[in-house]
Protein 1
Amino acid sequence: MLELYTWGTTNGRRPIIMMEEAGLPYKIIPVDIQNGANKTPHHLAISPLGKIPALVDTDGPGGQKVTLFESTAILLYLAEKSGKFYGSTPAKRADVQKWFIFNVANILPTFAIMRQHKELEEVAVKFLDVLETQLSRNDFLAGDYSIADMTPITRLVQFADHEWMKTRPNVARWINKVSTRPAVKKALEMKIG
Ligand SMILES: N[C@@H](CCC(=O)N[C@@H](CS)C(=O)NCC(=O)O)C(=O)O
């Protein structure tokens, strides 16, 4: 059984998208980060910084229990476990990994820090232009829908109506297409805790 310790935040919803998309059965364990439930010895034993999301797989490889923190490491684990959304050939997998890491290294930190530092907007817009070019040639970031699309959507969906999208129609189309997939919609709207 996959047990996801999480809360209703952008990082917290990311693994839900993948479990829904891959059809993996899972259980949500709400961890209220406002009341310190993420700093209990039990939670710290799974996630050393006391952050959500964290995942416990009671049936990992060889029947062993696996515990994970970092939402993007959880996505990689679930992609390996399910064999889904991770590129069906070595070349496609390399493409997925390239776009997955582009998002982890650039989009996620920039959009997170941007809330505090307005000047980073210029950088964010540059990254959006990279996405716009890629999405003008492909329906999804790595060709077929994959974990590379799941990674940034919980953050970028909040920019769906932003004026930036007026001049980036392919990013706008992609946000709409990904965020309205039943699994993504369910993860974005799920009431947690
Ligand atoms: N890089 C981490 C970030 C996790 C993170 O920052 N989680 C926040 C909620 S979105 C949290 O647990 N905050 C509570 C705290 O740090 O005390 C990931 O992607 O999982």
Protein 2
Amino acid sequence: MEKEFSGKVAFITGAAHGQGRATALAFARQGAQVAAFDIAKPLPYPGYALGDEDALRSLQRECELVGSGCLSFAGDVRDDDAIQRAVDGTLAEFGRIDVLFNNAGICAYGRAHELTEVEWDTMLDINLKGAWLVARRIIPWMIGQQSGVIINNSSVAGMRGMNRLSHYAAAKWGLIGLTKSLALELAPYHIRAVSIHPTGVNTPMNDGLAALEGKTTQEIAEASAGNLLPVPWIEPEDVAQAVLYLSSDKARFITGSQFVIDAGLLTR
Ligand SMILES: NC(=O)c1ccc[n+]([C@@H]2O[C@H](COP(=O)([O-])OP(=O)(O)OC[C@H]3O[C@@H](n4cnc5c(N)ncnc54)[C@H](O)[C@@H]3O)[C@@H](O)[C@H]2O)c1
């Protein structure tokens, strides 16, 4: 039986861990070929464990087990040469790119007046500029193809203020401006752009943040406890299913908007 994304190609950043990985696997299960891009090495900031080469390799194997091709690229979303190599490699192997999921990101706590310029710049460069850097290398191809979907992973922090997360929230609000502008520029070419806004997600990011705070992930979740529905967080698979829906023809008239997956948090 034909799967929903048979013949399609999804380019996913931050694919080694968490939401990127779950989304890569969800696309693969639905027949898409996957290009998995991840820094795959530690960074001094934020200081918790990011993806690694083993995680990229195991993702590749898991995609192959469900019958889909997966290319993996170790690279930083701040590195234009690495992005170009990955895009060229994807097009050479798979021949097209239908979906870009700009998902790579970091998080770190610090009150606005105590952050260093390096911390501020690193956050904005990865979480906001990185999405633009990747998009601008893929958009020309999508324009030629006269189709495509760009999904930017923002956060509930992109729709509210967040204590000790000013740089994170600023980057995530910035993704809304980027998304809406891309939607305007690209609609004539039948390309859609949407931002998604998850509440806390059960991923290595939250484990890492908890460890840096000297707390368990459970304690961090209980302290933030903003969800209306009585759950401490949502799962990466919940985000993956939203991304698949938004990438599909079922969402063909959804562009420029914010898709909230917040267990009711923003209703408070
Ligand atoms: N976890 C949450 O509670 C939550 C909630 C809302 C939104 N988000 C956002 O979702 C996205 C994914 O987060 P996650 O929870 O899966 O985190 P995660 O840390 O589990 O996974 C993030 C992945 O991005 C990669 N990455 C980090 N910096 C990179 C860079 N410079 N270049 C390339 N790859 C890089 C990491 O190696 C890692 O594999 C992020 O943008 C995050 O801000 C997270």
